[in-house]
Amino acid sequence: MNFHILTLFPDMVERGLNTSIIGRAVGKGLLNIETINIRDYTLDRHKKVDDYPYGGGAGMVMQAQPIYDAWQAVAQKIGRKPRTVYLTPQGNTFQQEMAKDYAKEEDLVLLCGHYEGIDERAYTLADKTISIGDYVLTSGELASMVVIDAVVRRLDGVLGDEGSSVDESFYDGLLEYPQYTRPAQYRGMSVPDVL
Predict the structure, then answer these.
(1) Cβ atoms within 10 A of the Cβ of 185, count?
(2) Quick one: DSSP state of residue 22?
């Protein structure tokens, strides 16, 4: 599987995803993570990718042109229109079923918003908009890492024990059962007899 992350902060994403289970999966060749710096596609000589909201308002908005051109470069590279997700607080809440669905894709583009969001015209690139919850983050990079982590766990060969993903919380809509370690007694608390 190939993840293509359209971002203003490639280092943030690369450092966050180059460790643990995801880093090992990349090392094994089970997936590829490509960051595309949206700034590389701006036509502005100062690498500006944002502007004031048209009609006024607080904050800055990411411009459509560099987003579109960055996305177009990915589409041309892979030779087709990729499934594209925009991470935004206005999107549908991310669920385990979405992770299962995205794990079936060969290529998945994740568009990370920043500032006050993106120019509404760039939304047309997205097949779906998703949110990881009802709270505000600095940018979509953190949300993209959450989505990637959930999707990667669904890919064959990523987890050491293939049964691990089947027994996880939300696999079948339920939470996982409580877990214990040794010793059987700790600070007056016991492991249940059934175990």
Answers:
(1) 9
(2) H
CA angle 94, 98, 99 (to 5 degrees): 95
8 A C-beta contact, residue 35 and residue 8: no
State the residue for tokens 């549908």.
92
Residue 82, classified by CB atoms within 10 Å of its CB into exposed (0-12), middle (13-18) or buried (19+), is buried
Helices then strands, each counted (H, E), the chain: 5, 9
User: What angle (nearest 5°) sits at the alpha carbon of residue 18, between those of residues 171 and 141?
Assistant: 75
pLDDT digits (tens, 9 = 90+) for 76-114: 999 999 999 999 988 999 999 999 999 999 999 999 998
Q: How many CA atoms lie within 13 A of 40 on its CB side?
A: 12
Q: What does DSSP assign to residue 118?
A: B
Residue 29's H or E segment, with its range, is none
